[in-house]
Amino acid sequence: MKTDREILRELAKQYTEIAFSEENFNNIKRHKGCNDLKQLKPIVLMDELPWQELNADNVLTLECKDEFHRSLEWFFREKLFRHKYIPCNTIYHPFFPVTKIVGSSGIGVYRKEKEGQELLLSHTYENQIKNEDDIKLLHEEILTYDEKTTFEVLEKAGDLFGDILPLKLVGCETGYGLGLKNLDDIVNFCGLDTFFYDLIERPCFMHKLIRRLTDIFLDKMKKLEDMNLLEENSFYCHSTAALSDEFEPSVGKVTKKQLWGRGLAQIFASVSPKMHEEFDIFYVKEALADFGFVYYGCCEPLDKKIGILEQIPNLRKISISPWADIDNACAQMGNRYVVSAKPNPAFVAGVSFDENAVKKEIVRIGNAVKRNNCSAEIVLKDVTTVCNKLENLIKWHDLTMSEISKIFD
Question: Looking only at Cα atoms, what is the longest distance across the chain?
Fold first, then answer.
């Protein structure tokens, strides 16, 4: 029986071959080209997958005994799985990243689910911010950097496989977790129905609440800058390509100028452009103004709201969800912004794979991108199930890569 050390060293060798391959470095160039508006052929990515359904041939089964070793093992096994079954244009760090461990006090209010929902998949939340006095419960985060534990992790991992794969200390990456997601937070704190009623019946109250959350976000980002805890060379930002040759290099500390700002208002899928602008874009313009680039949007359809998004300083990428009109979006965006096209994950969620539906969608995306000379990425994400059929993802991958090559090669 292999020891934990032997298992990790063997996995590290396999990973190193991939990370230092010509294919990986070519994909890194394509990611940069996409974000720098120089890459016509879209890159293809997958993320947010139902890993509990994908353990084909036990390739994801952890074999290490020690819990710390198992966390390292998962890093390697997940990446090796991707490369074997669904490589897409995924890129891999040519090092093992050890993230700085940062603690937070929280902001004073947490999501509180209503009782009796333990066995339900869809949950409702209790309203914890009923009036202006409750807004005072929200406070700035107190951040702490656990440097001692961080360097212990770095040392332990280095002792295990540092002679095979270099290690690198990395900072906090911007994405959903470090994004400006005021409206998502309010839904978590207040509940969905209350949120929409208050937008209509108590707009002044909502503005005060959003203002408070925006100030908390700005304070947190400043603290992360001051403590030099941010990462300037992120490979991904919320499942999408993040590398670019256009960021200003850092001098001393990493600042927001070297990062993607992340904004979204997915709960505003059916809200008018005017209300969307008033309750989100107004605050996004201020909160994300100092970032090198801004990536805006998530699940909300934005093809009819490009005009209000253009107000955002340094806007570089816009999410075009399955519920948006890709033709309309690409026609408006042209080569001014990266089109982050999100195919419909429902097409891989069934017992059977609908090849015609996937082909129709991918061909439409590809043609819209090519017709309008867009720089684009195609990102399959939010995949909650594949009905335990890994082959659905493999078929989607093979078909998508093939159809995109037919259109652009």
Answer: 66
